[in-house]
Amino acid sequence: MHRTQLYLDDDLWKALRARARKQKTTVSDLVRRAARERYLVNLERRRRAMQAVIGIRRSWPEGLDSTEYIRRLRRDGRIERLEKS
DSSP secondary-structure letter at 58? Predict the structure, then answer.
């Protein structure tokens, strides 16, 4: 674990101190949890989402590029069906 020093404005310090008292923890613990949630949890969520996308085009016909795929989607009349809904 590494030690760091932060400068917090008065309003943020008061809010963190009140929350820490309410949760019976320290301001440092609140800051560590917030940083972990913001920078590590979301990173893992993004990693899982990217892994879910891998191979998504496997079902496309051989040699079909994304431009042609979009053109085919536009020709199939889905927009007209959606407008009628």
Answer: G
Q: Which amino acid would we find at residue 45?
A: R
For the beta carbon of residue 56, count every other beta carbon within 10 angstroms. 8
| DSSP type of residue 57 | G
Residue 3 lies in a domain: no
Judge whether 15 lies within some domain: yes
For residue 60, what are the domain limits?
10-84
Q: Residue 78 has what pLDDT?
A: 64
Given a cut of 80, is residue 79 above it in pLDDT?
no
In a domain, 68, yes or no: yes
State the pTM of this model.
Answer: 0.51
* Model pLDDT for residues 43-60, shown as the tens digit of each residue: 778 888 888 888 776 766
Yes or no: say if 31 and 6 are a contact pair by the CB < 8 Å rule.
Answer: yes
Task: Round to whole Å and give the CA distance between 16 and 27.
Answer: 6
Is residue 4 in some structural domain? no
